[in-house]
Design a protein that fits this description.
This protein has 451 residues and is an all-alpha fold. It contains 17 helices and no strands. The protein has helices at residues 8-19, 34-60, 67-75, 77-110, 116-135, 142-170, 187-199, 216-245, 256-264, 272-304, 307-310, 312-315, 325-346, 349-365, 368-381, 394-416, 425-450. The chain is globular.
Length: 451
């Protein structure tokens, strides 16, 4: 049965659902009103060039695999396979961080007496729910992403509206004078900038199903513009809502969303608890939907690299659903091990959240070190492929976008190793040893796939 083509509207919804995340956007708000300035500057200097690059590559090469297929054309199968491996591993390490946030939010909203053990059990259970859904062969459901995108737009829009209402009724929790938007070039500002870059990544995800897109040469560039504007606006609106209710110095990276929403809902008076819990249920659903789309997207990219066809570890397919079930199961094993390890070693959801998430940041950044040079090389070596869309301003625009994007990603990688508290064995060794093991394992899998 022929799959119905993905329309422009559905592409925008899919991209908004993939990029907009509610569990990590709060952290930069700890900088106060200047975080809004950083969001704007990062959108201008990174998000736009990054979007333009994806528009050119996606329109020129509308083939499944997205970033894998682009890097393969430019740098060959080995480097492209590493990129796809990093992409998949990022999802495996991001998933436990997302569900640590999930279990923490659920506990705070509905079961405040949950123990650390039960928090870990709930997080693990949610990871295996995602594994089960993947094995069942659920497509990258456009219907689900449409619903999730609408819900995310709704939640962040509510944050903005309630922020205004709260400010009028109670006064704003932070200074919003013109001077408060000025940047302070200190460690925190630079560090949170990399978190903002992370929150803006994911434009290329739609290209993992490029063969299903309706008129990709025309619609991918349009999607880039429409989704880009909407995503940047939503993050800024959401950040304003957080800052309207919570003093910057009191914002916690894991609990900030919860406390901000709780405080904003006080404008509803006696109905505040009902409204708050209703919105929290929606927020929890968006975390699940995010992982469904990214897990399936990660496996799709890995599948295009043929790791799931050429290796025994990942090549096993489910007899009933014909899906690469071992690649999903391995994700679940990795996620479970990380959740258990971090809760056991730190005893703190915050420590667990940031250790896992920082490693996820690092592994997720790595594929983009190839993406930005790829667009330059393909423009040079592939002059025959028609380009329905090109980055504006000719070669200047091409090199400017590529260099600027690469510098942001490289800076983000470096900053993950720089902390204000100096050397932290658990944190730094997780990043160093984890990245080394991940890379070696990816190389070994590639060599085995050749045999």
């Amino acid at each position: 049965m022929e799959t119905k083509k993905v329309s422009l509207f559905k592409m925008v919804s899919f991209t908004v659902c993939g990029i907009v995340v509610l569990d990590t956007f709060v952290a930069p708000a700890a900088l106060g009103a200047s975080s809004i300035t950083i969001w704007l500057l990062t959108a201008l200097l990174f998000f736009i060039p990054y979007g333009l690059i994806n528009a050119e590559l996606g329109a020129a090469y509308p083939e499944d695999g997205g970033i894998y297929s682009w890097v393969k054309r430019a740098f060959g199968d080995f480097q492209a396979s590493l990129v796809s491996w990093f992409y998949w591993v990022n999802v495996a390490f991001w998933m436990p961080a997302v569900f640590i946030a999930f279990s923490t939010w659920f506990s705070m909203a509905f079961a405040p007496d949950m123990s650390i053990t039960l928090l870990a059990v709930l997080a693990i259970a949610m990871c295996w729910l995602i594994v089960y859904i993947g094995i069942r062969g659920v497509d990258l459901s456009i219907t689900v992403t449409n619903i999730a995108a609408v819900l995310k737009v709704g939640v962040l829009a509510i944050f903005g509206v309630l922020g205004v209402v709260y400010g009028v009724k109670n006064g704003l929790a932070n200074d919003f004078s013109l001077s408060s938007f000025a940047l302070s070039f200190n460690f925190d500002t630079i560090s949170y900038s990399s978190a903002i870059v992370y929150n803006l990544l994911g434009f290329e995800l739609i290209s993992s199903i490029a063969s299903e897109i309706e008129e990709p040469g025309k619609n991918i560039p349009k999607m880039t513009v429409l989704a880009g504007i909407l995503i940047a606006a939503l993050y800024i609106i959401g950040t304003f809502g957080v800052l309207a209710a919570i003093p910057a110095e009191s914002i916690d990276p894991l609990d900030g969303f919860f406390y901000a929403l709780q405080e904003l809902c006080t404008v509803f008076g006696g109905a505040q608890d009902i409204v708050f819990k209703g919105i929290m249920l929606v927020a929890l659903f968006t975390l699940v939907s995010n992982m469904i789309s990214w897990t399936l997207g990660g496996v799709e990219v890995l599948d295009e690299a043929e790791f799931t066809k050429k290796t025994k570890l990942l090549g096993h397919r489910n007899k009933k659903y014909n899906t690469p079930d071992y690649s999903y199961i391995l994700m679940g094993v990795i996620a479970t091990a990380l959740i258990v390890m971090n809760f056991a070693l730190s005893g703190s959801a915050n420590d667990a959240f940031w250790t896992i998430l920082s490693f996820s940041f690092l592994v997720f950044f790595l594929p983009y070190l190839w993406l930005f040079p790829t667009v330059v090389k393909l423009r040079k070596i592939d002059t025959e492929t028609p380009r329905p869309y090109k980055i504006p301003l000719g070669k200047f625009g091409l090199y400017f976008s590529s260099i600027l994007g690469f510098l942001f990603i490289a800076g983000g990688v470096i900053l993950l190793f720089v902390t204000g508290d100096g050397w932290d064995p658990l944190y730094h060794l997780t990043l160093i040893i984890g990245t080394g093991i991940t890379t070696v394992f990816g190389v070994m899998l590639y060599r085995k796939s050749l045999k």
